[in-house]
Design brief:
Blueprint (H helix, E strand, L loop, with lengths): L2 E6 L10 H15 L6 E4 L3 E6 L4 H8 L5 E11 L2 H12 L6 E8 L8 H15 L4 E2 L6 E7 L3 E5 L3 E5 L8 E5 L5 H11 L3 E8 L6 H18 L2 E7 L1 H10 L5 H19 L4 E3 L12 H8 L6 E2 L7 H10 L3 H4 L21 H8 L4 H10 L2 E5 L2 H4 L4
Parallel strand pairs: 5-6, 5-7, 10-11, 10-13, 11-12, 13-14
Antiparallel strand pairs: 1-3, 1-4, 2-3, 4-8, 4-9, 7-8, 12-15
Helix pairs in contact: 3-4, 5-6, 8-9, 8-13
Bound molecules: adenosine-5'-triphosphate and magnesium ion (MG).
The site of magnesium ion has 5 residues, from loops.
Amino acid sequence: MNSIILIKYGELTTKGDNRKEFINLLYNNIKDKLKNYDVNIIKEHSRMYIEHHKENQKEIIDVLKTTFGIHAYAVVYKVKTDNDEICEEILKQLKKENFKTFKVETKRRDKTLPTTSMDFNKIVASHILKNCNDIYVDVHNPEVYIKIELNKDYTYFYFNEYKGLGGYPVAVAGKGLLMLSGGIDSPVAGYLATKRGVKIDAIYFEAIPHTSLDAREKVITLAKKLSKYSGDMKLHIVPITKLQEEIYQKIDSTYLITILRRMMYRISEEIARKNKNLVLINGESIGQVASQTLTSMNAINEVVKIPVIRPVACFDKLEIIDIAKQIDTYDTSILPYEDCCTIFVPKHPVINPKIDRCIEYEKLIDYEGLIKEIVQNTNTITIKNEDEFSDLL
Ligand code: ATP
Ligand code: MG
């Protein structure tokens, strides 16, 4: 294998005792994502190196771009720790770059080496200046950084590093259940929870025949796009038609959505508990619609004990859209298929629902029996991350 990528952990380094666990998890996540490539991954206390074949480099970098827990990455060169050899090789690689100004930054990782980092900076810089015309040192704002890591026997150098996604390695925080609709907000919510290390499964409520199979396909596509970041996930497809029809027949129209959402929360909690998901995650955003006022959130949240995480609660819609575009869910989300929350929408949904009234209305339906039946009839599929990459192999 002739090429190496360096990975820096960043935020992980602040994690004290958990550090080892974090690094192991990041290592396993990367190893799993790269299982179809011939690579050798070396993990160290503050860095990881991926030795690979150059022809796979672009694909491997694409995988790293969707991996949480990576602060930065760079393509590095490895040479023997020998001053002349290092200078020559740096010069050779540097000649392929187009720049006017540079700065050398050396890290002497083996303190028994005789030359200090400062002195080594000078040795390399003067070698470059002697052998190239029209280029200058700029210590404040260089176009190219030449970063050198001196180890006892071998040395790494690289020119520019790229920002990774940051966050924590997926699964470090346990599992959560994402309420995934076909909208813009919930995929973004899932992505943001994943960024904090939450491994996600997803739950989707459908009301066939009022909602279509196209709407389901859209949610499956969104789940696939998320699995690029979160890895394989379960998608629970929940048939809510019967319960929804009961609600529409028996309950005052202003309370339809509030009650429907209370039911969705109850079912989500039950499925989460069964599957060891520790929290629910959804795309609610304060004040976005009637069911997302603070009073509505109280009336809806009241039916479950499980914590509910709302990663986009405080984001403006435009901020959410920006992230949706960045993670490539936006174009799918705006496909015009109906959602069970958007069919039979009342003209005047209640903005400040009363919990007492919710409880009174719910006495009109045998929701416990219906929920039991719905959970039994839930269809769980596994969404594989691999499908997304198959075209790259
Ligand atoms: P939009 O981007 O259009 O607002 P949304 O997905 O946020 O879409 P809302 O009606 O605002 O839709 O619903 C709020 C949240 O409730 C969603 O983000 C999602 O987490 C959850 N939700 C809504 N409908 C469903 C559904 N059919 N299945 C699963 N979760 C749903
Ligand atoms: Mg929304």
